[in-house]
Amino acid sequence: MSKVLVSDPIDQAGIDILTQVASVDVKTGLKPADLIEIIGEYDALMIRSGTRVTQEIIEAGTQLKIIGRAGVGVDNVDVPAATRRGIVVVNSPEGNTIAAAEHALAMMLSLSRHIPDANASVKRGEWDRKTFVGAEVYKKTLGVVGLGKIGSHVATVARAMGMKLLAYDPFISTERAEQIGCQLVDLDLLMQQADYITLHIPKTPETTHLINAKTLAKMKPTARIINCARGGIIDEAALAVAIKEGRIQGAALDVFESEPLGESDLRSLGKEIILTPHLGASTTEAQVNVAIDVAEQIRDVLLGLPARSAVNIPGLGPDVLETLKPYMQLAETLGNLVGQLAGGRVESLNVRLQGELATNKSQPLVVASLKGLLYQALRERVNYVNATIEAKERGIRVIETRDASARDYAGSLHLEATGTLGTHSVTGALLGDKEIHLTDVDGFPINVPPSKYMLFTLHRDMPGIIGKLGSLLGSFNVNIASMQVGRKIVRGDAVMALSIDDPLPDGILTEIVKVPGIRDAYTVTL
Ligand SMILES: NC(=O)C1=CN([C@@H]2O[C@H](COP(=O)(O)OP(=O)(O)OC[C@H]3O[C@@H](n4cnc5c(N)ncnc54)[C@H](O)[C@@H]3O)[C@@H](O)[C@H]2O)C=CC1
Ligand SMILES: O=C(O)C(=O)COP(=O)(O)O
Q1: How far apart are CA 521 and CA 110, in angstroms?
Q2: Known EC number(s) (predicted)?
Q3: 519 labelled catalytic
Q4: Which ligand sits nearest to residue 205's alpha carbon?
Q5: Computed over its alpha carbons, how large is the radius of gyration of the chain?
Q6: Could you tell me if the CB of 215 is within 6 A of ligand 2?
Q7: For residue 502, is pLDDT > 80?
């Protein structure tokens, strides 16, 4: 049975899903050294933002197949290290969107009305109605940095409260921004004009200290900034100075450069700053959502199925996966088959996506083809995560083409592998939306479902050849399950595809190519 380690607090709904397929250990608050010591036993690791999954931990996790982040940000996981090791990293892209957006909005209103300090004052026994006079957000300008899932929801609600909206996000279109009621502007203008600025971007090398002394200096002295995205996007030292010197009105932070927040100038500031301990995703609803979302993906991966929100499998989002799922096995089978036909070292793989597969969304099929191609060399060590890197490291050139006009089948896939021993090609399609069929081998039309053991011959189409091959296989006690010949012209070159019940005995290929008219023979195990 698989073993899963849950190293941060996760809702029971997720644990219940994991226990369907694995034994689950919940061990929170582990020190890095303790995690390194035990991670080798586990097939999956489920975390939130509390566990830092470093390269060292990934390397110690020799059995790890999946790291599941029950939340959005994966900046606490060394994703490139996981990718190199073929470990799939999944998250829950939408499970806590509303929770994080509502926290940012709560921060904005709390800042405007000094709710935390007013509350503390009343609890101390005071009744101070002067100190806590606030400001309205109505008709003020909100600058949203990062108009993704959370930023969009914040913008939508803020608009309903009568705020004017500016947004900075270099990766979204003006039309999309307008749909949400935002005017897309550059960061400088947003910093200068907004009364409230809210950050909803990932932490990347480009966004680290995006808000620094220089950018803070552009803000109005009456403006406030909110960070419920990631610590480190704001330079905390510069922010503390800007607030202390009254150069901006205030800030609300849910996330910090280092968590838990240690000694910090931010702590000594007054009602102009609100600090919460990374609570953005901490609602009952969001925790159930993310726990279920990620536990289901861990369960699927442990059962050998693809994950719907893998961050290190390019292009394989949930909607794409739904349509491509039946074709992924086809691509893998064809990759495995053409690799074995090519034999030797494969130098290039040409993947032609045909018919309805001729779209940009079919890119994962190229990855699946590579996974199949590399299976003979790497066995279970190759997967959707590392297939592209492994192919690159082996110097395999991948050429991807699309042909929407190929209409023999709704969608079909043509692979051509060139290696040190020559070039071979295979085409396949799905029948009835799920049954894999080989429809062409080396340019010869056939129509056979692939089977575990197969024999392919390239021969001259002439009387008696099938009989001779059948007798030869019989003399080696090989049972033929099915056989089909593909030819272009009568008595020209032809391909024979045989499904056989057992692996071919050693030495039989040299006997097969001695049959007059048979030029080549290939065995394949799928
Ligand atoms: N405080 C908390 O507990 C939580 C924090 N988060 C954090 O909130 C952030 C946003 O999450 P989502 O909206 O779900 O992500 P998302 O991926 O839907 O949106 C992020 C947006 O940022 C934009 N972006 C990327 N780089 C940018 C740059 N250099 N400048 C401007 N825009 C840039 C992207 O185009 C995208 O539209 C993430 O950092 C996530 O980790 C998410 C959930 C809870
Ligand atoms: O989902 C995210 O990106 C978050 O920051 C939430 O973090 P958490 O799971 O509450 O530790």
Answers
A1: 76
A2: 1.1.1.95
A3: no
A4: 1
A5: 30
A6: no
A7: yes
Question: Is the ipTM reported for this complex over the cut 0.95?
Answer: yes
Is 56 among the residues known to form the active site?
Answer: no
Instruction: Classify 33 as helix, strand or coil.
Output: helix
Residue 7, φ and ψ in degrees, nearest 5: -110, 5
**How many residues does this entry show for the chain?**
526
Q: Which of 52, 53, 72 to mutate for ligand 2's pocket (most ligand atoms within 8 Å of CB)?
A: 72
Three-state SS at 8 = coil
Q: What is the mean pLDDT of residues 112-125?
A: 98
Average pLDDT over residues 392-398: 92
Query: Ligand 2 atom closest to Cα of 69?
Result: 9
Residue 379 annotated in active site: no
CA distance 114 to 28: 35
> Distance between CA atoms of 7 and 468, rounded to whole angstroms?
64
Closest CA to 155 of 135, 134, 172, 132: 172
Look up residue 488 and give its two tokens. Answer: 């272009």
Residue type, 409: Y
CA distances from 328 to 302, 325, 334 (A): 18, 5, 10
What is the overall mean pLDDT for the chain? 95
Whole-model pTM: value is 0.80
Could you give the CA distance from residue 510 to residue 431 in angstroms, rounded to a whole number? 35
Any atom of ligand 2 within 6 Å of the Cβ of 83: no
Q: Which ligand is nearest to the CA of 69?
A: 2
